[in-house]
Amino acid sequence: MKTTSFVLLVLVVAVLMYGTADIPKWGDPNAPASNHVSPYYLRHSIEDTATPNVVTSVLADYRGYDTLGETTVVFTAGMACLLLLKRVKSGGKDDV
Amino acid sequence: MFEYLVDYYNYWMFIGLMAIGFYAMMVKRNLVKKIIGMNIFQSAIVFFYISTSVKRGSVTVPILEHSAGHDAGHGIDIMHYANPLPHVLMLTAIVVMVATLGVAVAVTIMIYRRHGTLEEDEILASVRRR
User: Fold this and answer.
1) How many domains, chain A?
2) Does residue B70 lie within any of the structural domains?
3) Number of H helices, E strands in chain B
4) Using the 8-state DSSP alphabet, how is residue A53 labeled?
5) What is the ipTM of this complex?
6) Which of A92, B36, B99, B130 could tie A88 with a disulfide, CB 3.0–4.6 Å?
């Protein structure tokens, strides 16, 4: 069991190391990740949202629906914790 | 060779961190140790994404400096600011991380209340006895 996991782990690490050869160098300013939408956010953040902090304007304005869904995730997790940890009164079906 | 090392060593660090978390999730018998492994794994992913937002050169955090005036957006040099998008996405990922951690710990508490142990094999034995 332990040996199987170790072999699997080495395999995963090898595949990921092989994959790093194709991704852009660390700190490359012309990497694809910095060249599609993020220049738009940096240039238009002030006139669109009047917020100097671009992270805030993207989080709460450009991608506001994402943040709304995020609050749903937190709410669901909180409800799950509450329902799991609630002490059942004696006489209930589950004697936890 | 050294150039290659400097350009890519950060990815190898994250792969190593991820391997530590993955190993803990697969091999450790204690459920709390498994949860810690999961958190290390997720941290490695977050670090990886944050590292993609780095740009070499005179780069600062994505908070715009000349924010006054109407045509403020035109004088902005995008090579002067780090990529804000991975930061935002990882903010979301951190929230999901906390949510999964909370639910996982709650489930672990329930398992401990019912079986009195957190070791996997003992839990299996306890389940078979019922």
Assistant:
1) 1
2) no
3) 4, 0
4) B
5) 0.82
6) A92
DSSP characters for B48-91?
HHHHHT--SSS-B-SB-S---STTGGGG--GGGB--HHHHHHHH
pLDDT in tens, B88-117: 999 999 999 999 999 999 999 999 999 999
Report yes or no on A93 lying in a domain: no
Number of domains composing chain B: 1
Domain range holding B35? Answer: 2-54+82-129
Judged by a CB distance cut-off of 8 A, whether residue B72 touches chain A is yes
Distance CA A46, CA A42 (A): 8
B121: distance to nearest CA of chain A, Å?
Answer: 13
Whether B76 sits inside 8 A of A43 (CB atoms) is yes
Q: What is the CATH number of the domain that holds B42?
A: 1.10.287.3510
**Is residue A19 a part of any domain in this protein?**
no
CA of A65 to nearest chain B CA: how many angstroms apart? Answer: 12
Q: What would the pLDDT profile of A7-47 be if each residue is shown by its tens digit?
A: 999 999 999 999 998 888 888 888 888 888 888 998 888 88
* Nearest-Cα residue of chain B relative to residue A39: B78
Do the domain assignments include residue B61?
no
Q: Which residue's entry shows tokens 């999964």?
A: B100
d(CA A84, CA B1): 54
Asked if B55 is an interface residue toward chain A (Cβ–Cβ < 8 A), one would say yes
Average pLDDT value for residue range B50-57: 89
Q: What's the domain range around A74? A: 40-86
In chain B, residues with a C-beta closer than 8 Å to the C-beta of A6 are: 23, 27
